[in-house]
């Protein structure tokens, strides 16, 4: 693209390059209905897109999104988005043909202030009927083994002692709900959009448990009046970097925060909204009373599959997920392990058998246009392995089905956390608990059981002789002969 770039804003929507569709609705007529905390790429490429699609039909104009965050660096994102009237260019990347559109369903972004006063005020507004979150799997203050609420975390201790000036998104929700209860405004729906099994139930646990630490009567009111629907969300949305910024400029648009995504979206939602909701099903979402089956399939095969391949990719210096799938061993690892060790513990959903879902994910992971970095996918393994892989391992051990590949993947993670690739280059810290993981990984080189003795991750799995033996054998082979030799031993 040559010539002057179109600076993204309300004023320039009529000037978008040919082929780039913008909002057909009057954005000045939109009114807010949702506060969304955690304005990363996934939200803007998924939930915001569904709402935008409704608005393109002339629907849900009173459900516009107000963005929010609770971390200081969220302010950088807010300023970038404010400068372009909260518009986002979505670029779909698919080998069969790519396309772009500008999404306009977000109309504001709450300033990030210590104590979260502006966020609390916004959630207190009666117009806000849904508070949604994408705060990552590890952001809900849950114990990775027991799945119970972590009341001892310093952030939680602070919010319980200072309920009017909280640090966390959940503390801000509790503070706003207290004000709504006292004013007679009524409850809002808390909607998790993170990759967690039973994400709505986990959000309820976090909010109600935190409220109970400072105001038991409020906790009871929240538990009785607010709803927290479970949901499964799915779309591969890479982080934005120099390549994505160059791509949107080649389209002819000056957008500081574009989003690239694959040609696939799925959103399955429990229909439990105490204060109303948009008709997302008219934009392709599914309302279902059996969200658990959908989320189990997706979390175990897609999210678990990401962990299967990303740790091996990091060790071997493969930079992208598509590159991992093109690798002669890593791609085979995904398909064999998913088919033989995960599928036996996943039930079919309407229109999709587990084995067919494996083939679908294999194709999606292999899309060469989606530059999803191995490092991004491997991030926060302490949450992702415990949430995505270890539940399958527990069921496999109980059922007597194969688990050697799962043991290999845990060994690959342990090797990755040693902090070096096989070419000698460093792997930068990539987990909130990296220092602990790194120390255990280095000790496990000589004594593999040290890794499994991280009870906060493995719990009783550390005591299972068969799993511990398979893990030790794989880890020792990786250190002795290399990751590729360990992969061949499993595959052959």
UniProtKB/TrEMBL annotation:
SUPFAM superfamilies per record: 6-phosphogluconate dehydrogenase C-terminal domain-like, NAD(P)-binding Rossmann-fold domains
Record's keyword terms, sorted: Oxidoreductase
Keyword Oxidoreductase: yes
Residue span, Mannitol dehydrogenase N-terminal domain: 33-282
Tree of life domain: Bacteria
EC nos: 1.1.1.67
Molecular functions (GO terms): mannitol 2-dehydrogenase activity
Domain Mannitol dehydrogenase C-terminal: residue ranges: 290-479
Aminoacyl-tRNA synthetase in keyword set: no
UniProt-recorded name of the protein: Mannitol 2-dehydrogenase
Originating organism: Antarctobacter heliothermus
């Amino acid at each position: 693209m040559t010539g002057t770039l179109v600076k993204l804003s309300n004023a320039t929507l009529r000037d978008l390059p040919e082929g780039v569709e913008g909002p057909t609705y009057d954005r000045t007529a939109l009114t807010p209905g949702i506060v969304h905390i955690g304005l990363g790429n996934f939200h803007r490429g998924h939930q915001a897109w569904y709402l935008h699609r409704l608005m393109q039909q002339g629907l849900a104009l009173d459900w516009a999104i107000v963005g929010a965050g609770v971390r200081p660096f969220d302010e950088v994102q807010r300023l970038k988005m404010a400068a372009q009237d909260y518009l986002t260019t979505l670029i779909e990347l698919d080998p069969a043909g790519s396309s772009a559109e500008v999404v306009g369903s977000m109309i504001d972004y709450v300033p990030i202030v210590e104590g979260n006063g502006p966020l609390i005020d916004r959630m207190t507004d009666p117009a806000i009927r849904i508070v949604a979150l994408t705060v990552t799997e590890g952001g809900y203050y849950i114990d990775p083994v027991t799945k119970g609420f972590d009341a001892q975390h310093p952030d939680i201790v602070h919010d319980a002692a200072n309920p009017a000036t909280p640090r966390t998104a959940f503390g801000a929700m509790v503070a706003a709900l207290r004000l709504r209860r006292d004013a007679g405004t009524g409850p809002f729906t808390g909607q998790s959009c993170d990759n967690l099994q039973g994400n709505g139930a986990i959000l309820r646990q976090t909010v109600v448990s935190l409220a109970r630490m400072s105001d038991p009567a409020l906790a009871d009111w929240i538990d009785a009046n607010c709803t927290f629907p479970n949901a499964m969300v799915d779309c591969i949305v890479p982080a934005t970097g120099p390549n994505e910024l160059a791509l949107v400029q080649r389209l002819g648009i000056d957008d500081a925060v574009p989003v690239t995504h694959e040609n696939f979206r799925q959103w399955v939602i429990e229909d439990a909204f105490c204060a109303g909701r948009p008709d997302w099903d008219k934009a392709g979402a599914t309302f279902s009373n059996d969200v658990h089956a959908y989320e189990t399939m997706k979390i175990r095969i897609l999210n678990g599959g990401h962990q299967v391949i990303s740790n091996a990719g990091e060790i071997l210096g493969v930079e992208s997920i598509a590159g991992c799938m093109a690798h002669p061993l890593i791609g085979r690892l995904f398909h064999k392990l998913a088919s033989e060790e995960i599928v036996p513990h996943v039930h079919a959903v309407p229109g999709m058998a587990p084995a067919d879902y494996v083939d679908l994910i294999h194709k999606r992971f292999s899309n060469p246009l989606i530059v999803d970095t191995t490092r991004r996918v491997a991030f926060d393994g302490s949450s992702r392995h415990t949430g995505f892989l270890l539940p399958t391992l527990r069921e496999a051990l109980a059922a007597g089905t194969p688990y050697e590949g799962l043991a290999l993947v845990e060994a690959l993670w342990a090797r990755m956390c040693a902090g070096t690739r096989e070419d000698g280059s460093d792997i930068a810290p990539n987990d909130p608990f990296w220092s602990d993981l790194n120390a255990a990984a280095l000790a496990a080189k000589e004594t593999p059981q040290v890794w499994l003795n991280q009870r906060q991750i493995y719990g009783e799995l550390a005591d299972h002789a068969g799993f511990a033996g398979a893990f030790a054998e794989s880890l020792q082979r990786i250190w002795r002969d290399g990751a590729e030799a360990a992969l061949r031993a499993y595959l052959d």
